[in-house]
Design brief:
The chain has one domain. Helix content is about 55%, strand content about 5%. The chain has 13 helices and three strands. A hairpin with a 3-residue loop joins strand 2 and strand 3. Helix 2 packs across helix 8, helix 5 packs across helix 9 and helix 5 packs across helix 10. It is globular, with a radius of gyration of 19 Å. The N and C termini lie far apart (about 65 Å). This is Peptidase M48-like protein.
């Protein structure tokens, strides 16, 4: 009986500490990191579906994108800037996609990088993905879908098959692990908060949607950016953050120092296969 009471107490404590404004998360921060590491291993073990561009031979391309990530990490808005092991990977596929694994592991497809027009756009998308990681949206959704026991078995390396399925869902932004409307709005807004501390125009995330609309591709927006809100609604949310959000106004430098950096971005794209 005493053991049962202790287990109930532990479960209740986990539940209360995991509850936040946007849902429940049974993962600890260390669990996020461990899960992210396991997911990276799963992706690396499947080069046919995830042909990650190796750093050796592509040092200049990785230096550029890693410098961008480190610039974004200068923002004081991150909760786990120093707790997560942030790193970025490039997947060499003509796919309009990007995703973040728990614990700060970021993946960008060459198809998306080449589709974007300037550095601020990529920084906006990167900030969006970093927000999903820092706000712990992935493990929050996993808690909801899979439950505590299955997730812990994956962390302990006891359920490799399930990890493969989760990796696929995260990479495609599909299935049960796709983010909620509120998650997407939060990630858009925090992307702007982060970029306010950089040289990049904080509205970079919005330029992606603008291009999709201009090219009449709004109906085919990638799942990772279009879970619930339409492109128009996302643009309105971004515009409202820029003009009405008090937190953003405090972060915005207002000195005319932001830019798009198209020329340097074109040089970066030319480094890719």
């Amino acid at each position: 009986m005493k053991t049962i009471q202790i287990n109930i107490l532990v479960f209740t404590t986990l539940w209360l500490t995991a509850c936040g404004d946007r849902g429940v998360n049974f993962f600890s921060v260390d669990d996020d990191k461990s899960f992210g590491e396991e997911l990276v291993k799963s992706l690396e073990a499947d080069p046919v579906n995830y042909p990650v561009l190796q750093r050796q031979g592509n040092e200049k391309a990785y230096l550029y994108i890693e410098t961008m990530m480190n610039d974004i990490l200068k923002s004081d808005q991150f909760k786990f800037k120093d707790r997560f092991d942030w790193e970025v990977h490039i997947i060499n596929q003509d796919v309009l996609n990007a995703f973040a694994a728990p614990g700060g592991k970021l993946y960008f497809y060459t198809g998306l990088i080449k589709y974007l027009d300037n550095a601020a756009s990529l920084a906006g998308v990167m900030g969006h993905e970093m927000a999903h990681a820092d706000l712990r949206h992935s493990t929050q959704q996993m808690t909801k879908v899979y439950g505590f026991d299955i997730l812990m078995s994956i962390i302990l390396g006891q359920n490799a098959g399930e990890m493969t399925n989760i990796a696929k869902d995260l990479a495609l932004g599909l299935g049960t692990l796709k983010f909620s409307r509120d998650n997407e709005y939060d990630a858009d807004r925090y992307s702007m908060y982060y970029l306010a501390a950089t040289k990049y125009d904080p509205r970079g995330i919005g330029s992606f949607f603008e291009k999709m609309i201009d090219n009449s591709e709004g109906s085919s927006t990638p799942a990772w950016l279009s879970t619930h809100p339409s492109d128009d609604k996302r643009l309105q949310n971004i515009a409202d953050t820029y003009t009405k959000d008090d937190e953003f106004k405090k972060l915005f430098k207002g000195d005319g120092s932001y830019g798009l950096y198209k020329e340097e971005y074109d040089a970066f794209k030319n480094l890719l296969p």
